[in-house]
Hints:
Order of helices and strands: HEEEEEHEHEEEHEH
Largest sheet: 8 strands, antiparallel
Helix content: 10-25%
CATH architecture: Roll
Amino acid sequence: MGEDPRRWPPSYGDLEGLSRLIDAIAYDREAPCRLWTTAVRADPALCQGDILAFDSAMPVLDIGDKGGRIEIFGQGERSHWMVIGNTCDLAREDESTTQLVPVYSTEGLTAGALQGLRRFESYRRFYLDTWPGGPSTAQVADLMWPATITQAAARGAKTVATMERPGWVLLNACLVRFLGRDDGRNDPA
């Protein structure tokens, strides 16, 4: 069966290989905190996968197809966001922005949804084990809500968690799978 010429194919080429990599890393973790490092970086630079804490909820404007709406991410006085901008871009002097995605609790999700997240089956959300000093329940980073923010504003937030290399490789593989997936723009309604 040939590829549908109306559908953009995934850009990563080998979905099975990417899925095997995600499974190998996800199921190799010996403890939840292996995703996160407790080491403090001497370099204050932001890195892909860092969890930032802002002192307030953040509004995000969704322009969308049907007009604008505002979503508020974060409850009460604090909101958590994950840096998904490339670390190499964060180090460039000519790049003034980066991208973040909101992080929220997995409380209230069904057991089936939570199990799928823990297995990294979701293309749209990235499961986050608890991090040292963080919330007591697992969290999820919502890849469907990227927000562009100036690097200066992002650096004004507190970095509360930094990924270890296996966690970053897992995040990167999931980002490639998410960003490189076929877009479904020509799927039947």
